[in-house]
Every structure is written in structure tokens, then in C-alpha cells.
Amino acid sequence: MRNSGGGILSDRGPARLRADARRNQERILVSARAVFAEHGIDAPMATVARRAGVGVATLYRRFPNRDALVRAAFAQQIETCARALTEALADPDPWRGFQRLVETACELQREEQGFPAAFVAAFPDSTVEHAQARERAERDLLTLVRRAQAAGALRADFHPSDLAVALLSHCGLVTALPRDSAASRRLVAYLLQSFRAEAAHGALPPPSALSLRSLPLAADSSPRQRPSRA
Amino acid sequence: MRNSGGGILSDRGPARLRADARRNQERILVSARAVFAEHGIDAPMATVARRAGVGVATLYRRFPNRDALVRAAFAQQIETCARALTEALADPDPWRGFQRLVETACELQREEQGFPAAFVAAFPDSTVEHAQARERAERDLLTLVRRAQAAGALRADFHPSDLAVALLSHCGLVTALPRDSAASRRLVAYLLQSFRAEAAHGALPPPSALSLRSLPLAADSSPRQRPSRA
DNA sequence: TCTTAACCGGACGACATCGTCCGTTGGACC
DNA sequence: GGTCCAACGGACGATGTCGTCCGGTTAAGA
Asked: Which residues mediate DNA binding here (chains A, B) (predicted)?
């Protein structure tokens, strides 16, 4: 139990892991990303272990349960999303920043189908630092939207929750059609066009009460149950 | 074995079912729709049976496997979709027909979350009559799209596969957020606006090679594997 | 009312996955 | 090279679901 708190996420220093242990941990993460992308987020843990050339016990020693593994496997993707958000905010053209953020997030979803499914299902618990990161992401998103609206590029009736709607629906599409990147790009193009101010023809129905925290852009998401069996 | 071919779908005549058997079959179908909508398409068969006030054996006697049950449970919804397509084609205003078809299909997805999941996952086998129905649906859809484009309402670069993209992404959204009808309506509104001819600003990426047969509008779908475990 | 066959439902074996246990192996350090 | 202990991996029991079997029940017709 001395090892608790270290080693689950690899961002807290080496934690004095033995060389073979560290090597195996990395192989497990690579395997997990591949298996999750190929067979979905519910693929058996044993499959991940076998592909990594490792016993199940080794996997469970490093990641106490499936959620921990998912979390660690996609930590890098979270990082990419967070960076994309920062870059979007730094873009002098508000619309281009918004557009690139959406495109980057969707590209990530496209590349690893396990990624979106991971975030709509896998994060019931949150730590303080994650909550902070999430709050900052939410605030940044709001700023991005407001700026793009102020510039007259993003339609005025766009609601921040629409971003969640867009990303979740795109997530569903790439999950249903893992190999069809044309479909994904097509959807993104349609959505972005309909978000433009010029596309505002007629009123929209009222926005969702959906919080932005269910987005994969934040480091944590609301406690949704995974869409599993009864 | 005398009963083979009858009783699975209730549209081929009573097949001389005993009164209690017929009653139970109906209760099972009602229960299945409710359970699938509530717990997803992978809910245990025992849950369906219990809710119907019936033993598992009774369920399996009537529906030899999960797919048969799903198929029968949503036969009515297929019917509704087919009727919506016919009505859309009969509408004197091509755009309104198109619009209503999309809205009706999405409304069905919204009302029963099990419905979309059923169709992207559950129909590996097809019969001759289903293939015929599917072909007709495909042809009708194409006609609908062409007409709306000819009327100058639907954008010229709209591709029939975009309908599949729209419905599949919406399906993903309602699966991820089963209770959030505002999100669903919002997405539908955005998509429909972006399909209007006036919304065509700039070129779209190339369309998907996706066939329309994977749509729940047709009575059958392509043999996709369900997104299950490895 | 009586017969009979269709129907009912709970119990059951098969199967898959989860997460743990424990004897063995082999890095790290002297 | 030797020692120690962290790390290894396969076997294991627990759990949950599937689909079947079989003895009891009941609807339908004479």
C-alpha cells in the first residue's frame, strides 16, 4: 500500500518503478489505446494484457480497475485537448480559434474511437486538481464562444452547450462508423457552417441544460453511468 | 417444428397461438421496448422477462435470441419510419417533406433510445421481402433528395449519405443523453439549417461512401457487428 | 366434465469476465 | 557473484448472463 498515489498516472514522477515495471506500464498503455479503439471501451482487460505481452495481474497491479486504465490511457489525449483549447484562445481570429478547436477535438475522436466513449462513460470520480482544470476549461470555452460572437462570426443564438451537443453527436458518429472519416469530416463541416452567423435563418429551439463538464475538453466529466447492462 | 416461420413477427397471422401465449407475447414486446429504452439494447433478457411477468423460457420460446426480440419489438417503429417516408414523398412541398422525415426519424430515436441502437447493431440477416422494402426505401429517399434539390431548397452539394450521417450522429447523441430532448432538437435544427440551400457557404469535404441501407428508415441494415466486447 | 397437448416458469449447466492470490523470476544494489 | 524484494504471470473463485430442460399447469375442444 506504500505505492498508493503514485504510478497510476505517469505524470507524478517515476515513483521509483523498476525498469521492467516501467516498460510494462508503457506497453499496457499502448495496448489499451489500440484495443479500446478496436473493440470499444468494454473490451476485456485480459485482451489488453495479452496484447501487451503481460499477465492480467500486472495490469491490475498498475491500474486497479478499468476506469483507471482508461483514464491513464487517454491522459495524453486530454492533454492534447487542453492544449488545443489554449491555442484556440490565443488565436487572434476568434472564429478560426473556435473552428480549429472543434476540428481538433473531432479529429482526436476520429483517430481513437475509444477516446470519446471513454469520456462519456468513465469518469465518476474527480480529484481537486481535475476539478480545477475542468473549471478553467469551462471558463476558457465560454470566453472563446463570447469572443467569436462579439466578432460577429459565431451566431448570436449559439449556446455553449451546443458545443457539447456537437461533440457528443460526432462522438456517436465515429463510434458507429469507426472507419469512415469522410462521414466525420462531413458532419463537422455541416455543423461549423450552421454555427456561422450567416447561417442563422429562423429561430432555434431552446438550448440544452447540458453542462460543459461532460465534454472531453475538460479533464473531468459529470458522473454519467456507462450505457451498460441493467 | 410445425410452428417455424410463425409467431416471431406478429404480422403473419395468428398462427394458432393459444390465448395466454398470445397475451404473453404482447406483454413481452411491451416490456422489451421499455427495458431496451431504459437500459439499452444489451439489457439482460431476464430483465425483460421479469418485467413482462413471464419466465425466461417463455421469452426464449417466442423469440429464439436477442436479435429476434429486438427485431420484433421495433417492428412497429420500422413501420412508422416507412410510413413517414411515404408521407414525405407525398408532400407537395419537397423541402417540407424532407424536413418532416428527418424530424420524425429523430423523434422516434428520441422517444425510444433502444430503437437507434437496435438498428445499428441487430440485423445481420435479411429476408427477400426485407431486401425489397429496403431497396424501395433507398429509391424513395433518393427521389426525395433530388426533388428537394430541384426545388432549390436543399443545397446542391447535399449527398444522400449525409442523411445517414445526420441520423447516425443524432442516434449517438440520444444514446449518450437519453433524457435530454432539448439537445436532440437543437442538433436537428442545426443540421436542417445547414442542409438548406441558403446555408451553403464554401465547399464541403467529399461525402461518405456510406450506403443508405444502414439507415433505420429501411427495413434492413448492412451487417454491422454490434460494438460489443472482443 | 374430461382429455390432452400446448404452454408456463424456475432451476440448471455452460460460458465469459472480473479482480485476487500466491509461488516464481529476475532487476537493483552491495 | 550474491542477496533481497519488487514485480511477474497463471490459476482461481466469484459473479452475471445466456439459452435449455423438465415437471407442473391450463386453455381448448369433445
From this structure: 44-63
